[in-house]
Structure formats: structure tokens, C-alpha cells
Amino acid sequence: MEGPLEVLERRRRLLVEGDIEAFADLFAVDGVIEMPFAVDGIPARLEGREAIREFSARAATMPFEIIDLRTVQFHQTADPEVVIVEIESVARVTTTGETFEAPCIQVFRIRDGRILLFRDYVGAHSVPDLAAS
Fold it and tell me: What domains are there in the chain, each with its CATH number?
């Protein structure tokens, strides 16, 4: 069974490759994504693998692509299922070619190789207005 580090590395690879189906499959059937700092048009909470799949497919049509997710720091907690990751999301606006980096703190609960909870605190101020692109 994959541990949290392996699951998160696979997640990084799948997002960089744009494999939305496999990304969604990393989640437990009742997995949750929470985005407490979500900007307009982005839901603050997605419940269930299929909701995550549907949202991820819609997000894949937005005019940006993920170039990399650089891990700055990985923190294990007293709970072996919970990890905290400091990340720099590197992306490119596909309509303009502009690249940007967004700092993130991400909290995960991973059990038996599946993501149960992904809480993303993204520095939304670093993300360009994609609607204007």
C-alpha cells in the first residue's frame, strides 16, 4: 500500500500530465476537497469522488496548465494519516503564455493509499484573473 509521500508524488505527476481521471481516482469514494480561500466561481467544498472528478474536468478547460507542484516542506503529524505540505504551484496561462507561482499550504488525510481529505490554502492573490485572459 502506498504511503502519503507516494500518493502525493503520484498526485503531482498526474496533475502535471493533466490526467484528471487518474487524479480523481486517488480519492476515496467519499473523499473531500476543501478550499477555505476559494475565489469567485470555485466551490469551497467538494464532497465525493465523482464531484471531485466533475469539478476537475471543468477546471481542466480553464486557460491554465500546471507546470509543476514544488514541495517546499513536508510535515508529518502525530496522526500517521495526516500530512501537511508547503507547495509552490507553478502554472502557465495558456492564452497569454504568462507563468505564475502560487504558494499553498495543503493538508491531507490519506488512508490505505486513498485521499480522504485534501484541504488547500492557496495564495489566491498570486493567481492571475483567468477570466480576463
Answer: 4-125 (3.10.450.50)
The three cell numbers locating residue 21: 481521471
Which residues make Cβ contacts (< 8 Å) with residue 76, sequence separation at least 6?
Answer: 4, 83
**For the chain, where are the E strands, in sequence order?**
27-34, 45-47, 64-76, 82-93, 99-111, 114-122
**CA dihedral (88, 91, 93, 99) positive or negative:** positive
CA distance 79 to 110: 10
- The Cα–Cα gap between 34 and 52 comes to 11
Rg (CA), the chain: 14
Give the list of residues 6+ apart from residue 128 with CB closer than 8 angstroms, or none: 93, 98, 100
What pTM was estimated for this model as a whole? Answer: 0.89
The pLDDT assigned to 90 comes to 94
6 by DSSP, 3-state: which?
helix
Is 2 in contact with 11 (CB distance < 8 Å)?
no
Residue 89 β-bridge partners: 69, 102
Q: What is the pLDDT of residues 16-28, one digit of tens each?
A: 999 999 999 999 9
